[in-house]
Amino acid sequence: MYKDIKMLAMDLDGTLLNKESRISPQTLKVLGHLKSEGVKLVVSTGRSFSACKLYANQIHADYIVCCNGAIVYDTAKREVLFHKPLPKEVAIEVIQDLYRYKDHLKIQWDGVETYFSNNILPFEEDYINAFKEAYPQEAFSLKIYDCIEESIEEIMQEEIYQIFTFAFDQRHKPYYKDVLTRLNQFEEIAYVDFSDGYTDIIHREATKGNGLLYLSQYQDIHPNEMMIFGDNHNDRSMFEYAGTGVAMGNAHKDIKEISSHLAGDHHEDGVARFLVEYFDLQQKNA
User: How far is CA 77 from CA 200, 218, 224, in A?
Assistant: First the structure.
């Protein structure tokens, strides 16, 4: 195993994905080589399961840690290994609160297979179209609710693992801030920004770090045998858990401060370039 690294966990947005939300051919090649040498590949993201499957399939990931650690999924067995949903009554109350400002906020929440929202934005439509093109045989489960009061019973039929929100623009920020302030009344939940002003609401025990802890025990891999890549606040728990933490060049300064290594920018093949240098792959493949 390369330098005793047995597992490689990578955030998606701002890390593995470039500015066009794609994984570059060079990155795919490097990750494919490491996987062929026995390194376990993990997508570790704040995205929902539905919104990260495409990328996990592209790199042939062994595991998916999604919804900021609320779900851990084994791709070979095609089963959920670990899950930590939000308490249903609390989740519904938060969603109802958000819908008071549905014309001012993006509101999205995640089951395992279903993607719920108050609308679909261009970046989501781009992903859905790319997924359908790559996997036409697989359905993308999507439900849009302009109003939820008459659909509460239907919504409650599925576990809710994460709620996501942001303000459409600066004019709507007061509504966003009001919602965040009101979240403090719920002891069962936590919220974390994956980018400034973009907030994920999860169970307080759901973190990416806890997702890696589960995989560490499941695969009998020591934290020092893990390498992680990330760029923002919701990646902090990974940096605190794994032995080797690599911050992207575009990472938030707080993440850079707790990292053990720095990579290049996510739009300049930062992950691939770092891996090639760290593992001396050019010489090994010469």
Answer: 28, 13, 26
- Please give, one letter per residue, the 3-state secondary structure of 32-96: HHHHHCCCEEEEECCCCCCCCHHHHHHCCCCEEEEHHHCEEEECCCCEEEEECCCCHHHHHHHHH
Mean pLDDT, range 86-98, rounded to an integer: 94
Number of other CB atoms surrounding residue 6 within 10 Å: 18
Distance CA 188, CA 90 (A): 8
Architecture per CATH, 2-84+206-284: 3-Layer(aba) Sandwich (3.40)
Per-residue pLDDT tens over the stretch 221-255: 999 999 999 999 999 999 999 999 999 999 999 99
Fold annotation for 88-203: 3.30.1240
In percent, the amount of the chain with pLDDT more than 90 equals 75
Is the pLDDT score of 130 beyond 80? yes
**pLDDT-wise least confident of 38-42, 69-73, 193-197, 215-219:** 193-197
pLDDT at 286: 40
User: Does the reported pTM lie above 0.90?
Assistant: yes
- Residue spans per domain, the chain: 2-84+206-284, 88-203
* Helix 25-36, helix 270-278: angle, nearest 10: 40
pLDDT for residue 161 is more than 80: yes
